[in-house]
Amino acid sequence: MNPTILEAKDLDLYYGQTQALKKVNIQIPEREITALIGPSGCGKSTFLRTIDRMNDLVAGVRVEGEMLYRGENVYAPGVDVTWLRRKIGMVFQKANPFPMSIYDNIAYGPRIHGVRKKAELDALVEKSLRGAALWDEVRDRLKKSALGLSGGQQQRLCIARALAVQPDVLLMDESTSALDPGSTMRIEDLMTELKKEYTVVIVTHNMQQAARISDNCAFFLLGELVEYGSTEILFSHPADKRTEDYIAGRFG
Amino acid sequence: MNRVFYDGELARLDELVQRMGAQVLAALDGAVAAGSDPDRELADRVIAGDTEIDRMEREIEQLCVTLLLRQQPVAGDLRRVSTSLKLVTDLERIGDHAADIAEIVRTLNAPLAAPLAEMLGIARAMVESALRAAADQNLEGAHATIQRDDEVDGAFCRLKDGFIRQVAAGSGDADAILDGLMIGKYAERIGDHAVNICEWVICRGTGLYHDLRIM
Known about the structure:
Chain A is an alpha/beta fold and 252 residues long.
């Protein structure tokens, strides 16, 4: 296992009166793929969203305990959330390209963060699109609308957009669930490529996907982290019966 | 309730393995009976029956591969399917050895010598208890069966020493010595395959094969 980059310590999260995460303790290693699995409503997406504080946007959310990114609590007073979300990017279930050109989609983040020079932006756009394995398919139509791309291409565009601000961690919430098998495979290959430079944390309902690409796997149930460990062990010899029953499709 | 069809197919897999096991035991019994009280027709039936054992192996393999393809088993289910796939190979080899023994005994005029019959008896008991351990997923039973392999190996060494003494003394009939040695070796191999079956039973329960975690 690589050194820890993200660590939750006794993390509790409440939506109003409802406790969605219960004393979660987990260490996520850098430059590996960690998959969060569990039935709907188990807290895995909520957990993913605590990492870059996306839950701040939900009314009535209360977080206790700590979420450490490189040893610093992201919920400490004074943390710049914009900086945090630049370091920790997120890709969602449904591709959400902005209604603008492919180029402008990628350049959007860097421009916000103050990159102005065209040469610098050009280089960033190319590097990000290459990083997301999309460059060869779109290099001749960078000025065309991103909405004209296929679903799989749009999702890779969103990954490229996340890479453009040079993040440290990529969070992916069910990012292939709306894609056909071919597009899914391309994104899975891409994730395996990305982990050489980035830490990747994914939420997935697809057990085979978790088994195929993740290095570590965490099983959540009713807001608790039931089991966490190497994917190979978790899928062949889980320690907790609830984990086995879930991954084998006995409930959920 | 989830997994009605899937659980049914897994139960069918266990049942097919046991049915194949019963067929293999019957072949062994037939080979030993045909040797103890020389019976060429019975030996021929054992030899012909091996085709059915091979067919059963194919059927189990096909079910395992279909389950892997369609259900993508994980954890205990994966161990159940993948160890069944391994275990039937050992069962099939035991069936082959029963036919091999039948091939030899159909040429014999005298009943099998007592040490040989005894050795075959131990090997047969090992196969039976290995199959019972598989049916009940009884790891203690599997370990106990593995321990018995020393008995078969010891009996084979004594048998071989006896033949060596006969050869050295210039006594005994060369054909009978070679036939006896072959049958003894088959019995010893049957014991080894029973041990293998037990190791797959243990692997199904623990994920360990020879103390190495493979699943």
